[in-house]
Every structure is written in C-alpha cells, then in structure tokens.
C-alpha cells in the first residue's frame, strides 16, 4: 500500500492541506465490544453460581454419597474438576442454547461441538461430537447421552441483533469523545509529493515518527522541512468533556440491562450494584438459576435413573449452597426450624456448612411444647 493510500484512512486531504489528529497518528481506533463483553459476563456469572450447587444423590429416597455423587461433585473426568465441568456445561448451554454430555469409559465429557440428526418419531442421534481437539468417529443415540436445551430460539443471536444498535450509538459517543480529546493541527504543503520519493520519505517519517513523539511528549518541538507549515488547532473543540464519557456509560448501562433481562438476571446484579442485594439475590435464584437447574434435574434423572426415579432414586440439584450463610445472623431462624420439628440439628449443620454430629439425638426431630395438634386445642376449648 502506498503512503497516500494509507493516509486516506486517517487524514482528510484537501488539495495540499492535510488535517492531522493525535488519535490518527497513534492508530488507536479500538471499538468497545459491548455485546460479547456483557454476554460473557452474564454467562460467567450464572455458570459460576451453578458450579457451587451440590448434586445430591438419593437411593430409595435416602441420601447416599457413592460413585455417582463423586462423579458429579468431585471428579467427572480425569482432566476437570466438578466446578470446571459445571461451568463449561452451563456456558455451552447459555451461549449456544444447547449442550451435550457424553459418557466415555465412566467419564462425563461436555462436547465442544456436535451435530444432531432429528426425527419426529425415531430416536435422534448425534454425530461429529468433538471434545477439545478430538472428534469421535461414532454416532451417539439420544438415549446414550444427556442433551440439554434451554430455548427454542437462539438467545445469543437475538442479543447480538439488539446490542448492535447500542454499539452503533456507542461508536458515535466514542468518536465524539476522541474528537473532543485529541490534539489537532493542519499541515500545508507548498508542493505535491507526487513523484518526489525523497519528499514522500520525509512525510512518512514526519507522520509515523516525529508527530507521534511530538503529541506524546509533555514538552516538545518538531522540525519541519521547507515547504511545510504546521498550525496547531486550539479552542473549545479540543477540550475534553465529561458529557461524552456519560454518553458512553449510559449506552453501556442500557446494553447491559438488556443482556441481563435476556438471561432473566436482575440488571443491578450484572452491573455490580449492592443496594437491596438480598431481594436482588432472591429474584436471581428464583427466575434465573432455578429454571436452569430444573433443566439439568430433568435430563440427568431421565437418562441416569429412568423409571428408578419413581422408586426414590434420583439426583437433586441443591441450590441452597449458593448463598453465603452467616450462622449468627440466622440463629433465631435456626432455633425455630429445630423447635418446629422441620429439621434435625445435623440437617441444619450441613446447610450452614458444618459437619453433622452423627449422634442419636442430633439426627432426631424435636418439637417444643408450645406446638400442639389442632384437634387437641379444639378439644381443650370444648371441655372448658
């Protein structure tokens, strides 16, 4: 590419007058990618939240910690911990609206890509299943895998189309900010550089090196050859304004709010606001986390347990471990749950992250004397 072809991207040429800006010299026209940043933040937030969930296993309605429990909560495969595995699973599910787990030699693997062959009545199957850089040279029947589907529509594509409009507005705000903040000047040439290689080389050095150093330095001078006249442009146009920064912040906030709503997250949570965090967290768990955990619960149970589910053998995704619990702040509630017979001491100790005592009395359910059967209360009143 010739010098003048290159400069057309950065300068406005008017006969032999060239308008120079600091940002053009630095070639720093970086565009904020709001959509990918916001979507990645939201998905990462949700995936990290669900990775904290405990997958409890039950046999005959009794909680059991065996090989299935170990598989989901400690080591699903030799290369990933359960947290890494769950984060990848949820990230695939939310980003692509679908995710696939295959079992190979007793290991659970989340596929990076796959192709599903769908049928109306016959069993679907999957081909081109790839995990990292390995592609399986076999097909997997639907009954052999765990296939998770979140929506009928691709949320990512809808978000991209929506956020593109915000990025256009943001690009305008960025351009306004750069124009208001950059130093500007005009170079007038007494002759055209066309056909004069030496003069073109001098211009190359001037724009690529000398002006860059001149704009970056706190105090500087610059040498101009004969036939060049540079005039610094001052005035209000070169002063930075906080309004441009506010424009960018407001547009970014609006885009983040739309992304959060698409994932059913409270927008304040994605923005990092802490006001009313208790209520925000409750909404987040109810409308965002619980539906995703329901998808996991249904597919894992129908594929891993089948109709044994009816006999009390199943996996439960326990979301209570998501919240951080301060035992001193819930001491009254803790006492009430024991006094009402709702939970044993050991059950509540597990809920708050302590080890169970595993004693005869700690596994029993207790009820204080002020609780009584309603029939006894009515009978007592009629005897008076």
TrEMBL record:
A Pfam family assignment: Phage_portal
Record's InterPro entries?
A: Phage/GTA_portal, Portal_HK97
Name the chain's protein: Uncharacterized protein
Organism field: Clostridium felsineum
**Species classification:** Bacteria, Bacillati, Bacillota, Clostridia, Eubacteriales
């Amino acid at each position: 590419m010739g010098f003048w072809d290159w400069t057309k991207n950065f300068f406005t040429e008017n006969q032999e007058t060239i308008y120079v800006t600091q940002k053009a010299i630095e070639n720093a026209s970086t565009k904020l990618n709001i959509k990918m940043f916001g979507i990645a933040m939201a998905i990462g937030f949700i995936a990290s939240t669900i990775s904290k969930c405990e997958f409890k296993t039950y046999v005959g309605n009794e909680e059991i910690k065996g090989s299935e429990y170990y598989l989901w909560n400690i080591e699903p495969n030799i290369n990933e911990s359960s947290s890494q595995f769950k984060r990848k699973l949820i990230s695939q599910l939310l980003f692509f609206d679908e995710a696939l787990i295959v079992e190979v030699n007793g290991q659970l693997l989340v596929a990076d890509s796959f192709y599903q062959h769908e049928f109306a009545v016959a069993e679907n199957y999957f081909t081109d299943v790839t995990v990292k850089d390995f592609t399986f040279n076999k097909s997997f029947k639907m009954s052999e895998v765990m296939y998770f589907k979140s929506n009928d529509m691709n949320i990512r594509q809808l978000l991209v189309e929506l956020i593109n409009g915000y990025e256009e507005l943001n690009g305008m705000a960025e351009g306004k900010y750069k124009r208001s903040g950059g130093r500007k000047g005009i170079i007038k040439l007494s002759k055209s550089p066309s056909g004069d290689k030496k003069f073109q080389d001098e211009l190359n050095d001037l724009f690529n090196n000398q002006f860059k150093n001149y704009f970056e330095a706190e105090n500087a001078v610059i040498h101009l050859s004969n036939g060049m006249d540079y005039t610094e442009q001052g005035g209000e146009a070169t002063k930075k304004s906080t309004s441009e920064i506010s424009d960018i912040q407001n547009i970014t906030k609006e885009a983040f709010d739309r992304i959060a709503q698409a994932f059913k997250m409270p927008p304040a949570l994605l923005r990092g606001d802490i006001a009313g965090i208790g209520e925000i967290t409750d909404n987040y768990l109810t409308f965002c986390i619980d539906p995703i955990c329901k998808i996991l619960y249904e597919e894992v149970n129908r594929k891993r347990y089948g109709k044994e589910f009816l006999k009390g053998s199943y996996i439960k995704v326990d979301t209570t471990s998501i919240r951080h619990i301060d035992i001193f702040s819930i001491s009254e509630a803790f006492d009430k749950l024991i006094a009402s017979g709702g939970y044993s001491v050991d059950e509540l100790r597990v809920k708050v992250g302590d080890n169970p005592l595993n004693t005869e009395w700690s596994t029993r359910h207790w009820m204080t004397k002020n609780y009584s059967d309603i029939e006894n209360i009515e009978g007592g009143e009629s005897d008076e």
